Amino acid sequence: MTLKEARKRAGLSQCQLAELAGVKQSMISKIECYGNRPSPRVAEKIAAALELTTVEMWEMLYTDSGGKNQRESDAKATIC
What we know:
Radius of gyration: 12 Å
Mean pLDDT: 83
Oligomer: single chain
Largest sheet: none
Strand content: under 5%
């Protein structure tokens, strides 16, 4: 699962997730679209907002379902 999928599953917009996590919407967008990785503290806040464990969040940020590095997968994507 990706951050975008988890956010949508929770029924949240990027703005709503950002507000719950105490970050800017642009940070959520950068994580979802470009594979940017937040600091551990911010990742914990996002995980809490999505009701995910820290482990689930880290797996989401660092691997995709095929076990590849998330940046490798994002580099192949042409559209966010």
